[in-house]
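Fill in residues.
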């Protein structure tokens, strides 16, 4: 497997520049993972499949889903892509590299664990700030337009929020100057996690059943369906920050 991955990586760095991979390549990978993992939940909701695992009985209309997709495409092209293009010099200065050999797995996994811990801490406080009255009304309320979330609503947010909370996701990699392979793996895991948290379904195979302190869909769905001043459950991936600061709320799991 390692040889196969390195062979594929060698093809990439031979045919594309570091800038192309770190900016456009990152954007295309993000879009692919995000939409391929999120669209199936939209289809499930529309078709009514696996409804016994759906957390809320309510469903979004086709128009509401379509509006979400169109606005996401606009934000991704007009906000996410320019940020990825502009951030390359910063990551390069901090030590980003694309060369072979790929970093050993213990380094990759240690860095990603650090990213999760740091992102959880920063996201929690950033999210709580967004639930103050003025910021909620003018910024965060966009994300909460969908009280019944589905996978793609995970990135449906005001541009200011995209930049504000996105800082929590990129700070870890910016501090460690990782290999682009590590950065890509972190991004894939983070996208899959947030799509799952917003998917609206709690399956028997959901990770929250198997990973201690993992929030998952039930935890975050509660955050969306109650009044913003009483929601709690502000954490990103794991729930320990809510537990420590007394903002964890009953989810009916």
């Amino acid at each position: 497997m390692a040889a196969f991955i390195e062979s594929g990586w060698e093809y990439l760095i031979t045919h594309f520049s570091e800038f192309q991979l770190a900016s456009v390549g990152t954007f295309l990978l993000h879009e692919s993972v995000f939409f391929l993992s999120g669209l199936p939940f939209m289809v499930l909701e529309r078709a009514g499949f696996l409804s016994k695992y759906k957390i809320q009985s309510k469903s979004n209309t086709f128009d509401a889903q379509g509006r979400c997709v169109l606005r996401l495409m606009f934000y991704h092209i007009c906000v996410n892509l320019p940020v990825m293009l502009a951030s390359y010099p910063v990551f390069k200065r901090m030590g980003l590299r694309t060369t072979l050999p790929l970093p050993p797995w213990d380094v990759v996994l240690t860095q990603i664990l650090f990213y999760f811990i740091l992102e959880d801490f920063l996201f929690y406080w950033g999210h709580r700030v967004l639930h103050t009255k003025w910021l909620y009304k003018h910024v965060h309320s966009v994300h909460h337009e969908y009280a019944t979330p589905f996978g793609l609503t995970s990135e449906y947010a005001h541009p200011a929020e995209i930049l504000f909370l996105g800082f929590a996701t990129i700070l870890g990699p910016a501090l460690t100057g990782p290999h682009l392979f590590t950065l890509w793996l972190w991004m894939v895991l983070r996208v899959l996690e947030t799509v799952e948290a917003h998917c609206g379904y709690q399956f028997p195979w959901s990770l929250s059943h198997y990973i201690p302190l993992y929030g998952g869909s039930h935890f975050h769905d509660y955050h969306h369906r109650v009044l913003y001043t009483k929601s709690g459950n502000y954490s990103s991936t794991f729930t320990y920050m809510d537990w420590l600061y007394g903002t964890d709320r009953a989810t009916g799991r």
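The radius of gyration is 18 Å.
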